[in-house]
Amino acid sequence: MSAETTETAAARRTSLHGVHEELAAVFTDFGGWDMPLKYGNDVAEHRAVRSAAGLFDLSHMGEIRVTGPEASALLDHALVSSFGGLAVGRAKYSVMADARGGIVDDLITYRLGEREFLVVPNAANAGAVLRELTVRGGGFEASVRDESGTTALIALQGPVAAAVLGRVLEELHLADGGSELSGLRYYAAAPARVAGHEVLLARTGYTGEDGFELYLPAGEAEGLWRALAEAGEADGVVPAGLAARDSLRLEAGMPLYGHELGPDVSPCEAGLERMVGAALKAKGAFVGREALAAALEAAGDPGARTLVGLRGLGKRPARAGAVLLEPADTDPSGERGGRRAVGVVTSGIPSPTLGHPVAMALVERRFAEPGLVLPVEIRGRAAEFEVVPLPFYRPGR
């Protein structure tokens, strides 16, 4: 996902902006868009997604269609992962790297046909991804078309999402010929008719819960939103804003562009070593290959950075930018003294679900062992955080 921007003057609006105003949303600029931050209490919205479901407007995301005989070859060259073997109807999470091995964006790509893909970049990076796909696509028999301005995206996320969607699902055309919602697997997508609207229905999301993302023409978004809201009202489905989306994704250990990911972060530092290793084995030349091969080789060094989860042992949350120090037992005085910085918090919150602070951080690998307790500087004082595996939260756990 994409980090919040500070520029608000020219913020764009989604086709659901009027609905959000009706719901008395508090707005914020996010990736150049005027988006609902919350509709009332963001913690209540968070908890509703964990216990029932939330309805999200994600129409600020980009949609780029790549088609043609060499569409998969173009994506193999332009992105880190391999797409030639991706089955029709399936999706893959990947990153676009630059020549230095930094991350241009993280994105999801759906294979809609043998020669057709839908690439979904983050809002703030959609223009950069479009430019790079166009430039990197030179010489390939494939076309790159931006559909972001005409496409809306609505997400329904939470344990009752399937039941609610089932009430308004009229048709579903799975790649294997099936038509039952239970046959739509995680990270899969299929054409569907929902409450009279033709959509691309995907079982993907950014909350750690089961859920769906529905792509449709922007002019039809309001009708579908209202139909889903009505279908889920009795089950406690609520509109949810970006604040809840951020706390949900953090509990689920999912990275946010501009925090865990960015041009100065290698995929090998961000927990994506397996993705890089698989790409290096599976395919030949692609943008960033040499730099990523070097980064993967260096990733095992004790001083190399890696992404970890942190569980607060006290009540004070660590926010992005907080510095992690060497373990307290390196300085018997208990003061920072000569203890050096060994990492930085990339995201942190008081977890509404777990009841204690959680954070993600980039730290030196020598300090990434689960169970290790590290001091984190919070407003001039040290607070103890334990290194724990990601994700912090899984449904049913």
UniProtKB/TrEMBL annotation:
Protein name: Aminomethyltransferase
Highest classification ranks of the organism: Bacteria, Bacillati, Actinomycetota, Actinomycetes, Micrococcales
Family of the protein in this entry: Belongs to the GcvT family.
Gene: gcvT
Domain Aminomethyltransferase C-terminal: 305-393
Enzyme class, UniProt record, top EC level: transferase
Pfam families (alphabetical): GCV_T, GCV_T_C
Keywords from the named record: Aminotransferase, Transferase
Alphabetized InterPro entries for the sequence: GcvT (IPR006223), GcvT/YgfZ/DmdA (IPR028896), GcvT/YgfZ_C (IPR029043), GcvT_bac (IPR022903), GcvT_C (IPR013977), GCVT_N (IPR006222), TrmE/GcvT-like (IPR027266)
GO terms of biological process kind: glycine decarboxylation via glycine cleavage system
